[in-house]
Amino acid sequence: MDVVLEIGKREIRIGTVEELDPIIIPISYKHTGESNYLSDHSLTKDQYQSIISQLDESNQIKLQQYNESLGTWIDIELISPMILQKLLFDAIDSIPVNIKRCFLIDYGFSQKLKNNICTSLFKYRIKSITFIPAPLLYTIGSNRRDALIVNKEWSTIHKVIDLRIIGEYDIDEPIDTIILKSDIDIRKTLRENIVNTKDGVGCWTACSLYVASTKNANWQEITKDYISQ
Description:
By secondary structure, this protein is an alpha/beta fold. Helices cover 40% and strands 22% of the residues.
């Protein structure tokens, strides 16, 4: 069975190809990182509490909320391979099928992260993994071939023309500047096709339908043998 996998900052989505709605697994793990390092190693408990008590009430509330949120979100490029593996295993265990191919939505992941993801997934005897760029899927999901994809969650803007990514920008880059710096023949197209990723069918659903409609495509599949090289 073929599945689509999307790793977000606060949840993982997984489901079989052709489905419209994925299973959603909230990010959840025991956090033992930097926020506790200061109190456990540099200060005594009394010293730590003394510093906290000097914060005004609003900042104390913010600190409490932050501490409570730890373990419910990830910085995917910095997360440890062990935690990543646990999260992926939890997602795979939620879907009662034998996975042959996994189509994974790529939000510009580093090669190191892709290798870690593949290493974890191959432990579940998945035959192959294909990374599909998210900007292309958002474009397809909005029934376009050309678009300026604005993704606030990942803090990026992508320029897509004829289903090819031709530019990537930080979310703080003004859209007008991006358009004006583009070739003159695509400026009007970009201005008329600004896509906010919060709108439309969503990246996971777009990927599911796209893969289902292109089953015979020549996918660039990653196999266990390739990772082992």
